[in-house]
């Protein structure tokens, strides 16, 4: 049994995509980041960066004590290695998939996240910051589009954890001021993943976690989400 500590955000959806595709038994443990659940001591005990997602694997492959994993990229690698799925066994294939996984973790996620912040949530409209991150998001979409002009998926011919990592960050493309019509190869890839039964199930389960459709970011939650500092960690 995998316990997934989750809220329906792009990083959270990465893990439900894997779990649904792999058919692993799991339970969702809501972590309402807008309400500050990520600061609860019991969560910080295994997710010290006060971020979700995180998992507890109650049935690790070695049969030992439960294993905890935080950070979405690390979780995807852990689950791929545990199951032998969505990560090639050969060195060259594995290298390519991990390149694109790390590309998402180090590039697409952070840049699109800053896009969201300055375009949607920042208390001040800062034109330079907005333009900077919208353009960088577009550049990264262009990188994906070029890659997908010669490859069915980001990691090669087969669907992999690289695609699971990137897809949720393309879902809000309109909020990021990106038009998929400008990226035909990315559009083809996006709709192919969107139509997968496991993707549909993953997003349905994610929606059920926040059945009230309460916005994660509102005026009150901004103080929690955007007001953190070193002092927050020291508490």
Can you characterise this structure?
By secondary structure, the chain is an alpha+beta fold. The protein folds into 2 domains: 2-85, Glutaredoxin (3-Layer(aba) Sandwich); 91-194, Glutathione S-transferase Yfyf (Class Pi), Chain A, domain 2. The chain is 54% helix and 8% strand. It has 10 helices and 4 strands; from the N terminus they run E-H-E-H-E-E-H-H-H-H-H-H-H-H. A 4-stranded mixed beta sheet has the order 2-1-3-4, with helices on one face. Helix 1 packs across helix 6 (161-170) and helix 1 (10-22) crosses helix 8. The radius of gyration is 18 Å and the shape is globular. The two termini are 32 Å apart. The mean pLDDT is 96.
């Amino acid at each position: 049994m995998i316990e997934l500590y989750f809220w329906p955000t792009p990083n959270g959806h990465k893990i439900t995509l894997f779990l649904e595709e792999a058919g692993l038994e799991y339970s969702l443990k809501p972590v309402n980041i807008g309400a500050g659940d990520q600061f609860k001591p019991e969560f910080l005990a295994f997710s010290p960066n006060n971020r979700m997602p995180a998992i507890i694997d109650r049935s690790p492959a070695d049969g030992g004590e439960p294993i905890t994993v935080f950070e979405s990229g690390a979780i995807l690698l852990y689950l791929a290695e545990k199951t032998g799925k969505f990560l090639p066994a050969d060195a060259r294939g594995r290298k390519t998939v991990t390149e694109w996984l790390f590309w998402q973790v180090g590039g697409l996620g952070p840049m699109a996240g800053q896009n969201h912040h300055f375009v949607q949530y920042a208390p001040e409209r800062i034109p330079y910051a907005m333009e900077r991150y919208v353009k960088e998001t577009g550049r990264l979409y262009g990188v994906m589009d070029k890659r997908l002009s010669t490859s069915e998926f980001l990691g090669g011919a087969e669907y992999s954890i690289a695609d699971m990592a990137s897809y949720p960050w393309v879902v809000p493309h309109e909020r990021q001021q990106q038009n998929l019509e400008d990226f035909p190869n990315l559009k083809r890839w996006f709709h192919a993943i969107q139509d997968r039964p496991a993707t549909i199930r993953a997003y349905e389960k994610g929606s059920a976690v926040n059945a009230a459709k309460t916005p994660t970011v509102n005026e009150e939650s901004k103080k929690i989400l955007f007001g953190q500092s070193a002092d927050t960690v020291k508490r």
